[in-house]
Amino acid sequence: MTKPIQIAVIGSGYVGLVAAVCFAEIGHDVVCVDNDERKVLALESGDTLIHERHLPELLERYRGNKIHFTSNLQEATRASDAIFIAVGTPQAENGNADLSYVEAVACEIARALTSYKVIVEKSTVPVYTNEWIRRAIERNGVARRLFDVVSNPEFLREGTAVQDFLHPDRIVVGADSDAASSLLAAIYAPLTTGAYYARPGAIPGICSSSAPPPLLNTSTKSAEIIKHASNAFLAMKISFINAVSNLCEAADANIEQVARGIGLDNRIGPRFLRPGIGYGGSCFPKDVAAFRSVAEQLGIDFSLLTEVEKINAEQKKRFLSKVRSALWTLRGKRLGVLGLAFKGETDDIRESPAVDMIEMLLAEGCSIAAYDPAAIKRTQHELPASPRLHYVEDAYAAARDADAVLVLTDWREFSALDLKRLHSLMRYPIVVDGRNLFDPQVMHEHGFTYISIGRPAVYPARDLELANRPGA
Ligand code: NAD
C-alpha cells in the first residue's frame, strides 16, 4: 500500500464528490470543500445528494475517517499536498466557459499558500486556463516556487461515475514540472500499478491488476485540449448518427442495422452510435460551445462544431413533429412522459432534452403526466407541477388514460416495462420513443402504434391505412 497523500477537493458536485470518495477508496486522506453550507452539512450526515451507483456505500465507509467535509477552503488548502479544483465551468452567454468560479477558488487558494502545493484543474476548462490560474495566484503575491498548476481532466460519465473514475480508459496528467507530475503519479499509483484491482472488495470494472489504466503525461495545454476535443468528438458522433437516422427515415431504412454496420468497423467502433432526441447534460452542450469559442479566439475555423450544435437542436424539433404527426393535433392531448434526466441512471437534468421537450409540449397546450426514476425532485424545482403538468410515481401511472406515451430518457427500467399492462392503461396505445428502447416488432405484436428514431414506424392493422395516406 502506498503512503496516503493528503488531498483537498474543491467543489463537491458530480465530479468533486465522486473524485473525493474514490481518492479515499484508493487510500488517500481527503478533505472535500464546498461553499454551499447546506451541501456540506448534508454530506457530513451521509446524504450523497446525487444519484450515483456505489456512492452511498463509499461515502458511508470513509465519512469521518478518510474523508471530511468543510466550507473552509483555506484551512483545507493548508492541510493538503494536492488541491483539486472541481467547481462548475458553466456556459457564459457568449458561448465561452464561465471561469469565474475557478478564478475565485484560485484567489482563495493563493491566500492560504505558505508551503509548496500542487493545484490541479479537474474542472473542464479551455486551453490557457492553467496559465491564468498561475497568474491569478502570483498576482495575489505568492512566489512561483510555492506552487505548480497541473491539468488532470476528468472523463467520468454520470450514472457510472464511480466505476469510471476507478476504471478509467486513461488518466491524463498535463504538467510542466517534475515535482507536480511525480505527485500526480503517486496519487494515481494504486490504479496505474494495478494494486487497487488486486484488493479484496475493490469496485469491479474494466481494469484489472494485469490490465491497469495507462497514465498519459502531456503538457498542460495538451491536457486541456484533450478534454474539450474528447467531448466535442463524442457530441459529433451523436449528431452524426442522428443525421444518418434522419436519412434512414427518409429512405425507409433502419438505423439500427445501419449503426451496427458502421460500428463493426473497428476504426469507428459501436459506441455513441445510438440515435435519439439529441445530447444534453452539463458537459456536451457547454463544452462544444466553449471549444468552438476557443477555436474562434485562436483564429481557427472550426465550423464543424456549429453543425454539430445545429443538428442537435433540430433533433428535438423533429421529435416534436413526430409527436404531432402521431396525434394530429396537440392542444388538450394528455401525454405520459417517461424520463426527465438528460440520460438514464442519473438524476441530472441540466440541459436535459427531456425537459426542453416538456416545455415545448406544454407550450403546444398538452397536459403531461411525467415520471422519472430519480430526477423528479430536481425537475420540480425548474418546472413546478401545474394543472397541466403532474409528476407521478411510476411509468404505469404516467400511461394511465394517455393519448400517447413519450420515451425521453434511456433508463434501463423503461425497457423492462410490462407492455401488456402499459397498453391496457392507455387511452390510445401510441408510443413515441425518442430513445429506441423497444423492438418495433414486439411493439407491433402488443398492438401499439410505435414511432421511434430512424426506424420504420409500426401501426396496428386498423391504423395502417391511415398512416399510409398522403400527409400522414
Ligand atoms: P456541480 O455543479 O455538480 O458541482 C460544482 C460544485 O462546486 C458545487 O457543489 C458548488 O457549490 C461548488 N462550488 C462552486 N464555487 C465554489 C467555491 N468557490 N468554493 C467551493 N465550492 C464551490 O458540477 P460538476 O458536474 O461536478 O462539474 C464540475 C466540473 O467538472 C465542470 O467543469 C464540468 O464540466 C466538469 N466535468 C463534469 C462531468 C460530469 O459528468 N458532471 C464530467 C467530467 C467533467
CATH topology of the largest domain: Rossmann fold
- Helix amount: 40-55%
Q: Please report the number of helical segments.
A: 19
Tell me the structural class: alpha/beta
Which runs of at least 5 residues are low in confidence (pLDDT < 50)? none
Strand content: 5-15%
The termini sit apart by: 66 Å
Overall mean confidence score, pLDDT:
96
Shape: elongated
In total, the number of strands is 14
Query: What is the CATH architecture descriptor of the largest domain?
Result: 3-Layer(aba) Sandwich
Largest sheet: 6 strands, parallel
CATH class descriptor of the largest domain: Alpha Beta
Walk me through the structure.
The protein is an alpha/beta fold and 472 residues long. The protein folds into 3 domains: 6-218, NAD(P)-binding Rossmann-like Domain (Rossmann fold, 3-Layer(aba) Sandwich), CATH 3.40.50.720; 229-311, N-(1-d-carboxylethyl)-l-norvaline Dehydrogenase, domain 2 (Orthogonal Bundle), CATH 1.10.1040; 318-467, Rossmann fold (3-Layer(aba) Sandwich). It contains 19 helices and 14 strands. The strands form 3 sheets. It has a 6-stranded parallel beta sheet with strand order 3-2-1-4-5-6, sandwiched between helices. It has a 6-stranded parallel beta sheet with strand order 11-10-9-12-13-14. It has a two-stranded parallel sheet with strand order 7-8. Helix 14 (376-382) links the parallel strand 10 (367-371) and strand 11. 48% of the residues are buried. The structure holds nicotinamide-adenine-dinucleotide. Nicotinamide-adenine-dinucleotide binds at residues 10-16, 33-36, 39, 73, 86-89, 101, 104-105, 123-124, 154, 156, 158, 282-283.
